[in-house]
């Protein structure tokens, strides 16, 4: 049996119980203080690190952890670049030796104060939801695989929370999620993306119930999509890049013209993502954002949800070029098209991208007003 001291997010018992795969008896948990250590936030992350210092780190001690439970903890924390080390921890009844997860050297950069209560308010729900998926891979994936997958696991969790918070679609039948039940979810594949098989039953329009329906679902995240438009020059900027969908369909033109787009990272709004992606993909500064639509990409088999915007911008001739993040293997060429050229592409089916067509038609409807206000 092992004794561990948790100073960070695993102090939150719902998260700790998810990782351990069991409830925690109150008598197995007690408060502890690690003197001579301090906790700090991690740059661009929502969890802390512990380092040697002049202060003290508060947390909880959990006794009686089995080898399998420690292995589950190692798997989860391995995804965050941590490793166990034994230290002295002070409790009300005296000092005890406990193992603590320290960051692997040079893997995480401390960045100021970390507030546990603020984390509970802002991040605990998402983190617990992401942990449910992460721990489903225990014994199936390696620590390194989980480390690679964790960012997209969190994106999927954020998308689920967003769907719970806002459901805009009209359902004249009055049916809701409560009128369907999931009997089984099987994960067939997960790496950067995920593929699940759902067995469900739901009410039907005749008053009965449909049962035993099996459907595969591509599980992605939410995305922000942006069409930059210059109302003075009356033209738009589109980006061109290689796309796997047309490639896998055997399309002879897998390089596609489309609006700027990117996944919504946890903690970002759709609007913030759109503005960030405009800079990353095209080095364009957006003046004003206009919401066009909030839509599912392909609701029959895909969880992806699009927040589509038009953004007014200054688009001179020299704004075009090659951009994108090397870390995401992006190779993106931007192009300028007049409004008339854009509409010609729509009418000739050369705009073979659904969000682009939708944004173009919205622009056609609002173009006069945008130009008058410029």
Automatic annotation (TrEMBL):
<dbReference type="InterPro" id="IPR004385">
    <property type="entry name" value="NDP_pyrophosphatase"/>
</dbReference>
<dbReference type="InterPro" id="IPR045038">
    <property type="entry name" value="AIG2-like"/>
</dbReference>
<dbReference type="InterPro" id="IPR015797">
    <property type="entry name" value="NUDIX_hydrolase-like_dom_sf"/>
</dbReference>
<dbReference type="InterPro" id="IPR020084">
    <property type="entry name" value="NUDIX_hydrolase_CS"/>
</dbReference>
<dbReference type="InterPro" id="IPR013024">
    <property type="entry name" value="GGCT-like"/>
</dbReference>
<keyword id="KW-0808">Transferase</keyword>
<feature type="binding site">
    <location>
        <position position="261"/>
    </location>
    <ligand>
        <name>Mg(2+)</name>
    </ligand>
</feature>
<feature type="binding site">
    <location>
        <position position="281"/>
    </location>
    <ligand>
        <name>Mg(2+)</name>
    </ligand>
</feature>
<feature type="domain" description="Nudix hydrolase">
    <location>
        <begin position="219"/>
        <end position="359"/>
    </location>
</feature>
<dbReference type="InterPro" id="IPR036568">
    <property type="entry name" value="GGCT-like_sf"/>
</dbReference>
<dbReference type="InterPro" id="IPR009288">
    <property type="entry name" value="AIG2-like_dom"/>
</dbReference>
<feature type="binding site">
    <location>
        <position position="277"/>
    </location>
    <ligand>
        <name>Mg(2+)</name>
    </ligand>
</feature>
<dbReference type="GO" id="GO:0016740">
    <property type="term" value="F:transferase activity"/>
</dbReference>
<dbReference type="InterPro" id="IPR000086">
    <property type="entry name" value="NUDIX_hydrolase_dom"/>
</dbReference>
<dbReference type="GO" id="GO:0016818">
    <property type="term" value="F:hydrolase activity, acting on acid anhydrides, in phosphorus-containing anhydrides"/>
</dbReference>
<protein>
    <recommendedName>
        <fullName>Putative gamma-glutamylcyclotransferase</fullName>
    </recommendedName>
</protein>
<dbReference type="Pfam" id="PF00293">
    <property type="entry name" value="NUDIX"/>
</dbReference>
<dbReference type="GO" id="GO:0046872">
    <property type="term" value="F:metal ion binding"/>
</dbReference>
<feature type="short sequence motif" description="Nudix box">
    <location>
        <begin position="262"/>
        <end position="284"/>
    </location>
</feature>
<keyword id="KW-0460">Magnesium</keyword>
<feature type="binding site">
    <location>
        <position position="330"/>
    </location>
    <ligand>
        <name>Mg(2+)</name>
    </ligand>
</feature>
<keyword id="KW-0378">Hydrolase</keyword>
<dbReference type="Pfam" id="PF06094">
    <property type="entry name" value="GGACT"/>
</dbReference>
<keyword id="KW-0479">Metal-binding</keyword>
